[in-house]
Write a structure and sequence with these properties.
449 residues; 22 helices; globular; binds adenosine-5'-diphosphate; binds magnesium ion
Length: 449
């Protein structure tokens, strides 16, 4: 078998077991340099990819090669210094350089989509695998598989990226389909304008003409009754015609406060998938992928430092990388670990990142759509008591505060109230999955916001 044929055979098998995005990221511009005696040499475009392939896919690649040709006993990876021609056929299904290199391209006026968000550059890990798979399936078969599709998760974890990737993918596969991406805030302001200008009918019919409606951050509809009503009509009209609806939110439908029951049950009627926090390996993979996109390279220990210290927000991972890139440009060399630590000091351990009592109470109030003062009040209303107990529980769990302190800070209550609240939430958590989910989301916000 020629080098090319052999590598094609390997890739064909690898491709079966990994996502298209990961495949594109790690196997682009790879190939076999030589087959000598029992050894096969594989070239990779740079040291990141080399290490990644060695560590993550090395065993698998060897197994496949060995199964294809028993004489092969060893595989080694090298960096493609000799400028070997890259196998055209191999990369045919992989996006070309131009696509991976992000120039901030114009946002499409018609669809509101930003072409920089694609499935190809979306890295998959255990934390977002289900959400990605569901979104990808919907994009391949709009309106047919999951409708509506509802993606939820904390700040900076890839919801907008996924939703827009779906839109871009649909346009690519079905150029005739009308796709509309809208942040829920924009939808709301359009409703308000339409009402003011007495154009609600034409607004309605405009909304109902699309084939795919993507509404980002639907938690913004909370409490906006008129907007919810308009959205309900649009939703039904599209749904009945099997038009794909994709939604995102920072929490599951049942945890969105002041959402009309009929809308909630519509949201729950389709597929719901969440995105949680990326694990360490995926954080490193994301950093490496972003380095590749930016055609840059940093010492492994620097990337590992970032991935260890920024855990809960992918946007912040990117932010850290941007700082290092700026340094590199200025100094004509990549920062070493010490320089990186200094550069990232305020990102990694910014004083604002230290969780405070205030932050916890504020976040809980926000989450349940209450004012801080309501949490601190002595109201016995159910919709206030529970959030207050949640705040007390979190103060105990996250800050290890004493019960007298918790009582005092939650509106001058007795320490027995704090003890009771803490116990109540613990007991409740055993019974209620929903409460567990709410706490996860609140914590995500406390730590990533
Ligand atoms: P959210 O809408 O959940 O707040 P975004 O979709 O805006 O988050 O993501 C924040 C940033 O992180 C974006 O620049 C996005 O491209 C990037 N990002 C998020 N998830 C991934 C991923 N799995 N792979 C690559 N980039 C990601
Ligand atoms: Mg977003």
């Amino acid at each position: 078998m020629s080098n090319e044929e052999l590598w094609q055979a390997v890739l064909a098998q690898i491709q079966l077991n990994i996502s298209p995005a990961n495949f594109a990221t790690w196997f682009k511009n790879t190939g076999i340099t030589s087959q000598k005696d029992s050894q096969v040499s594989i070239f990779t475009p740079n040291s990141f990819v080399k290490e990644w392939l060695e560590n993550k896919y090395g065993k698998n690649i060897f197994k496949i090669l060995h199964s294809l040709d028993e004489k092969i006993k060893e595989v080694n990876f090298e960096i493609n210094k000799s400028g070997l021609k890259i196998l055209k056929r191999t990369v045919a299904s992989i996006p070309g350089d131009g696509q991976l290199e992000f120039q901030e391209l114009e946002i499409d006026r018609q669809t509101n989509l930003n072409p920089r968000y694609t499935f190809e550059n979306f890295i998959i890990g255990p934390f977002n695998e289900l959400a990605q798979a569901a979104t990808f399936a919907s994009a391949k078969n709009p309106g047919q598989v999951y409708n509506p599709l509802f993606i939820y998760g904390g700040v900076g974890l890839g919801k907008t990226h996924l939703l827009q990737a779906a839109g871009n993918e649909i346009i690519k596969n079905f150029p005739q389909k009308k796709v509309q991406y809208l942040p829920a805030e924009k939808f709301t302001s359009e409703v308000v304008t339409a009402i003011r200008n007495r154009e609600i009918e034409s607004f309605k019919s405009k909304c109902q003409k699309v084939d795919v409606l993507i509404l980002d951050d639907v938690q913004f509809l909370a409490g906006k009754e008129k907007t919810q009503e308009e959205f309900f009509h649009t939703f039904n009209a599209l749904y009945e015609k099997n038009k794909q609806i994709v939604l995102s939110s920072d929490r599951p439908p049942k945890a969105i406060p002041a959402l009309a029951e009929r809308l909630r049950s519509r949201f729950e009627g389709g597929m719901i998938a969440d995105i949680s926090y990326p694990d360490y390996e995926t954080r490193v993979a994301i950093l490496k992928a972003k380095c590749l996109e930016r055609k840059t390279d940093f010492p492994e220990e620097v990337l590992s430092y970032i991935a260890t210290n920024i855990q809960r927000n992918i946007r912040e991972l990117e932010g850290a990388l941007n700082r290092l890139i700026a340094y590199q440009k200025l100094n004509n060399q990549p920062p070493d670990l010490d320089a990186a630590k200094t550069l990232l000091k305020n990102l990694v351990s910014a004083p604002s990142k230290v969780v405070s009592v205030k932050k916890i109470i504020q976040t809980v109030a926000d989450f349940y759509d209450l004012k801080e003062k309501e949490i601190l009040s002595s109201s016995r209303k159910k919709e206030i008591v529970k959030p207050r107990q949640v705040a007390m529980y979190l103060l105990r769990e996250e800050l290890k505060s004493s019960f007298p302190f918790i009582g005092r800070r939650c509106g001058d209550k007795d320490h027995t109230t704090a003890i009771h609240a803490y116990g109540k939430i613990i007991k409740e958590l055993e019974k209620s999955e929903q409460l567990g989910e709410e706490l996860t989301l609140i914590k995500q916000r406390i730590f990533s916001g």
